[in-house]
Amino acid sequence: MTSTADASSNHHSLRAELETLTTEAFRPELSQIDRLSTLEIAKIMNAEDATVPTAVATQLPRIAAAIDAVAERMSRGGRLIYAGAGTAGRLGVLDASECPPTFNTDPSEVVGLIAGGPSAMVTSVEGAEDSKELAEADLKELSLTPDDTVVGVSASGRTPYAVGAVEHARARGALTIGLSCNAHSALAAAAEHGIEIVVGPELLTGSTRLKAGTAQKLVLNMLSTITMIRLGKTYGNLMVDVRASNEKLRARSRRIVALATGASDEEIEQALAATDGEVKNAILTILGGVDGPTAARLLEESDGHLRAALAASTG
């Protein structure tokens, strides 16, 4: 049982640590922001947000190196796993949940873990972010392999859940990435690939769902999207692996085939019917002049890369 003195000491220690973090810094020049007009506040906030892409740009070489490492492992059957608490965890879950409809990945291929479990997506789970053991337990359920990648996400770069996830994953030979918004973070130090997007103090002191959250969202967009491009999930800038699970996506599927091939509506309908609605296969039947089964075989032999399958069909 923790004594009152111990608790007080821990609070003082944490407060001192937070005061050293750029993301927690107080900005005296904004201390009267609540007295400004709504438009003035909106202009300040918009100007703050405009600085985020520049901060991301400084880390592009590190981001690219991390993506190449992720793609290499995923091409061997590995998974991409995000782990974070609070806003950072929610952003990871969001990115993971959008991969199946966008890239036709299995839900087990890109996974988002949030401290406290699914209920933490909408409700704060007290104390969950402070537990390295909880991160270890969550990852043990996934039975990590050396082909997996674990991305710890934390604005402060000190969140025990994110740091613990990276430490556990690295000890088991998995690729590790630490994404934070403070320089010299414990998270980046613990990971094989440290990515630190230093966006500076927030408009509201310590509210890291703002610039830090935007920066994390931009980097996670890159990690998943460019990895999927490297894995052949696109053809040019077309989402040829899109899963047509509703009317909007079915209409999008037909438009993608049209953009890729220039074929008539009748040809597109015939191609999709011959390939069970698979966009990539339908494009290959039209551009490669092959039937549905041949398209499926060529894509399998090309590890799903449409350009390679097209070259094989016409070579």
What does this protein look like?
The chain has 14 helices and 5 strands. The chain has 315 residues and is of the alpha/beta class. The protein has a 5-stranded parallel beta sheet, sandwiched between helices. Helix 12 (279-288) runs parallel beside helix 14. The protein is globular and about 70 Å long. The mean pLDDT is 92.
Find the count of extended strands (DSSP E, 2+ residues). 5
> What percentage of residues falls in helices of 4 or more residues?
40-55%
- Report strand order across the widest sheet: 2-1-3-4-5
User: Could you say which structural class the secondary elements and strand pairing correspond to?
Assistant: alpha/beta
H/E element order: HHHHEHEHEHEHEHHHHHH
Task: Quote the average pLDDT.
Answer: 92
Distance between the termini: 72 Å
Sequence stretches where pLDDT stays below 50 over 5 or more residues: none
Beta-strand residue percentage: 5-15%
Largest sheet: 5 strands, parallel
Shape: globular
Query: How many helix segments?
Result: 14
C-alpha-based Rg, rounded = 23 Å
Task: Considering the chains and any ligands shown, give keywords for the structure.
315 residues, alpha/beta, 5-stranded parallel β-sheet, 14 helices
Summarize the entry for a quick read.
This protein is α/β, with parallel strands linked by helices.
Task: Draw up the topology in text.
Blueprint: H1 4-18, H2 38-49, H3 52-57, H4 60-74, E1 80-84, H5 86-103, E2 110-114, H6 132-140, E3 149-154, H7 160-171, E4 175-180, H8 186-190, E5 193-196, H9 211-230, H10 247-261, H11 265-274, H12 279-288, H13 292-301, H14 306-314
Parallel strand pairs: 1-2, 1-3, 3-4, 4-5
Helix pairs in contact: 4-9, 5-9, 6-7, 10-12, 11-12, 12-13, 12-14, 13-14
